[in-house]
Amino acid sequence: MCRLFGMHAGPGPVHATFWLLTAPDSLAEQSRRMADGFGIGVFDPGGKPVMDKAPVAAYEDRAYASAARTLEGTTFVAHVRYASTGGNTLVNTHPFLQDDRMLAHNGVVEDLDMLDDRLRSLEVLDLVRGETDSERVFALITGIARENGGDLGDALTQAVTWIAENLRLYAVNLVITTESELWAVRYPDTHPLYVLQEGSEDPHRGKNSARISVKSDEMEQNKIPAVLVATERMDENPNWRMMDSGEILRVDRNLNTERSFPLPQHPQHLLTLADLDPHTAASQHPLKAAGT
């Protein structure tokens, strides 16, 4: 399962150091796949998008995968990839950038020929540089946002609803960042996605996990609040909350959060693990796919 991480640190830029792989990926379970790529994206203090990503596999260059990366911004998105669609190339590595937004995705969407037809009708198929379902889902969101005047919440609702009604899917978990906002979607309840509103006086502050970790002395010393989204609880803070199935979360510049539930209760063509080919299944639930 790909690892997602998003963080919003409020109205002012902060420095944060990230590690995209902080533990060996296959110590206890040798059947588990190694990660296929790593990426992190941020908007710098001038609003310019900055991405550091590479399709390198962990076993090929663990030094690169575990290197610390210090970036400055207000919104951050990071991704550790387990490839389900598309080869290990830079254009297939998350996060993706379209129209000054960044996206990272965890899940599987099939019937990509049908999705491509929809992208052609929106005149956004040219945004797709690689082979992944993730980049195509992003292009669908972007195409709808271009039509509706940039309403990202409506674009997310329309895009995921269309996918749920027309395509076979296993999961569509998303983190999208702009210069001033963070959005997250969990749909349906196949994979977990957690959110933490970390207050300035939170005694449990700390952001470490077995995959993606982040540390900011500036945030800790100045008790800067933040909102975090991740595929796993990153520490022992009891305030982590599992997002509900079908939930769309918006975090604005001032860390105000808004939850909505506009998506269909159930996808029309929901895939099970048994429906996926072995390679795709291994990227989603390596141990189950291996029969353990």
UniProtKB/TrEMBL annotation:
Keywords: Glutamine amidotransferase. The keyword Transmembrane helix does not apply. Residues 2-254 form the Glutamine amidotransferase type-2 domain. It holds the Pfam family GATase_4. PROSITE patterns: GATASE_TYPE_2 (PS51278). The keyword Iron does not apply. PANTHER family: GLUTAMINE AMIDOTRANSFERASE, GLUTAMINE AMIDOTRANSFERASE YAFJ-RELATED. This is Class II glutamine amidotransferase. It comes from Arthrobacter koreensis.
